Amino acid sequence: MKVREYLKNKLSQGAVHITLIDPSRQVPEAAGRLAETAQEVGSDLIFIGGSTGVSQRTLVETVDAVKQRATIPVLFCPAGTESISLNLDGFLFLSLLNSRNAHFISGTHARIALVLKRLEVETIPAGYILVEPGMKIGEVSDAELISRDNFWKAIGYALAAEFMGMDYVYLEAGNGAAQPVPAGMIRAVKREISIPLIVGGGIRTAIDARRVRQAGADIVVTGTVIENAGYRERLRSILSALKE
Ligand code: 1GP
Which residue's alpha carbon is nearest to atom 3 within ligand 1? Predict the structure, then answer.
């Protein structure tokens, strides 16, 4: 089944959870184990990405290890990298809408588009919007970060994504952020858009996940939580908060 349909089907049943695995944070075998655990506790999909400049070799080995241990779809979620693996189920075609650097909006995309077409990789377009603190990706992409109280600006970018024909709006506080995107901002954006809303960054606990979900996130992405001890139980409680 195509990832697009898989996601649509999952969304019709309720909240979707995605586990982000950053290939630069562990050896490929460990990434495979993390993916297996994520699937066991109920995560619906794996994103591979989160770091800039991941090498071709690390990416390929990580994707292979993940695909060996998990059967849920694996999407590449690049942020300015041109590496690619053939073993992926799809490619989240992320345009970082509030970057000042065209490379992150459409530049890398233009360079990799023909390769993706030739390889017949499924592409899923999403408007990626960075909210403070933005973390590393905010810095490297030279993003004009959305202040945490500027709901109008977030709405503007989110609607722009919808009008440009993106499948998803992705509100991101940044990998490793201390707090998620504010609930009020999620609520304000959700009220205006009619495409599904992905929210990630800083979601570590069941309370965070519930708050983000109740504010209107359709898809919740967590990364850092699987990098710490006791991650299985933490992830399990996040999943039960999301799926309750
Ligand atoms: C995915 O970047 C996030 O959108 C992941 O962030 O590592 O803070 O969960 P965390």
Answer: 201
Q: How much distance in Å is there from the Cα of 225 to the middle of ligand 1?
A: 9
Residue 138: CB within 6 Å of ligand 1? no
Decide whether any atom of ligand 1 lies within 6 Å of the 98 Cβ. no
Write the pLDDT tens digit of every residue in 60-107.
999 999 999 999 999 998 766 667 788 899 999 999 999 999 999 999
- Whether 176 is in the pocket of ligand 1, judged by its Cβ within 6 Å, is yes
d(CA 161, CA 65) in angstroms, rounded, equals: 33
Residue 51 reports pLDDT greater than 80: no
Looking at the CA of residue 18, tell me the nearest atom of ligand 1: 1
**Residues 155-193 pLDDT 10s:** 999 999 999 999 999 999 999 999 999 999 999 999 999
- Domain extents for the chain? 3-243
Q: Which fold has domain 3-243?
A: TIM Barrel (3.20.20)
State the pTM of this model: 0.97
135 lines ligand 1 (CB under 6 A): no
